[in-house]
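Exam review. A common question shows you a sequence with its structure tokens and asks you to describe the fold in words. Practice with the pair below. Do the first one on your own.
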Amino acid sequence: MRFYILLATCVSAVICSPTGDYCKAPFQRIGNGCYLISTEKVTGDAAAHVLCADRGAYLANFETLEEAMRMKYELLVRKTGLIYYIGGRKMNRNIAGGDWKWFKHGETSNIKYFLFPKSQPNGSSQDPQDCLSFWAPEENNWNRTAMIFIVFFASFLLTVKGAPTADPCGFPYRRIGEGCYLIVNDTVSADTAIVKTKIDQSFPDAQFRVDNYHFWRKDRNAHGGRIVMYIRSDLPCDRKQNMECEIIESIAAELVVNGKKWLISGMYRPQTISDNDFINDFTKTHDKISVKYDNMIFLGDLNYNLLSIDKCTPLSTVCDICGIENIVKGATCFTKDAKPTLNDVILTNKKNMLQNTTNFNCGLSDVHNIIAVQLKSDVPSIKKPLKKYRSYKQLDEEKFLHDLEQANLTTIVDNVENVNEAYDIFLTPN
């Protein structure tokens, strides 16, 4: 069975909806709603939630029967035969018949109607059915009874916040009717959909640049991965693409502080990369770096749990071969159904030149803490531009008006083009 995602400004496929009263491409208007109907393949409703959230949307809620019927018609016209995840969930398995609610941005609302097919839901405590989907049978045509059922699949609850902001129905979303939707045809797996940001070249640099900082990015595709790096613009630095890994996702940059060159590499290892490929790629890259740099730092999520000896052997092997060590202490990744893990690391060959290693939850990430470290170096402060302001603390309004009456403003205006120069002439006594 195939599962997909509709984003209403999201249907498994997936249906998403945007936050706010916006509906521009790739979202589309359907009835009074704004949706994105995506046919990206996902393996559970958690991945569907994340796919919508990464597009600034949420799994679609159909709060009235009319809304559901309009979407039914739209899906039947497409004749995809797919199952589309939507934002309905069973919140309490212990209540007879289930406690079904719409779920959006961490808030719930009652489902006021039901379109369950015969014998559904038929889950049990051993085989629970907790989430809702639209099912558009492949064999439907207009010569036969056309039906869309809400069907059920077991999965876990994932709180998702956000929807398209500022202009949520801009590209790649599009408007259908009065709704705003994104229809995606790419295939994703649950892990890559959940772990990364899914931002690709369709998102311009201008959305991520920060004043007074260099900005570099490395995209994988719209379904996972992606690394960005920021370095203060007043520090001598340069990206070194020849020092980046071939398989492991990475961005490498040279940074010069107090005359010392550092190679800083931000990394992410998807779990699809095998242990042998990781070891070979990392050590090969390290060999190239060590020829030109005495000081190096590798930081990022390598998906090896250093709190478990059995699960960190490849990373430990790399550290031994390269003469580097991890300086992050304590767990950095906290998931609902597993023990905390130390997946996010800062590896260096110059531990004594670093200080104030930080590992804390900033509330912005899904399950990961932020990790950071300081170099033991003094960096000059950013030079701030001098700004001139006119002071009105001693202003005497009557004298000011008198001066205006006595001044020959015509001469000043006719002969001077610069307003500041004109102001200086005005203040200069005759």
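Now try the second one, then compare your answer with the model answer below.
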Amino acid sequence: MDTYNYYTFIVGALLYVVFFIYESFKQLRAENLTYFLSNNYLLLFAPVYFFFGMGLLLGFKPLGVTKIILFGQVTLYVFIVNIVCIAYYTLINIYIYREKNNYKWIKS
């Protein structure tokens, strides 16, 4: 499949970013600054990072940009997707690790 569904990605990303901004401002208004260091915020922020990285790549309507070869057989698409996914899954793993430690601490 050589085509990307731009509109689904754009609508989904915009809805999520609007929700993320709303929740962030709600917590700022309540002056709940510890929320921004919490696991819940980390879990909400991880997809925003993913959308940012994919938005940089898919923001160009001509798909020729995604097929630019950077080095060897690595295209711009593969390079950016790998970096974004590594960071995205690292944030998710940090969330899981913290939750697991919090559960152990509460249980004992």
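Model answer, second protein: The chain is about 70% helix and 5% strand. The mean pLDDT is 85. Full marks require stating both points clearly.
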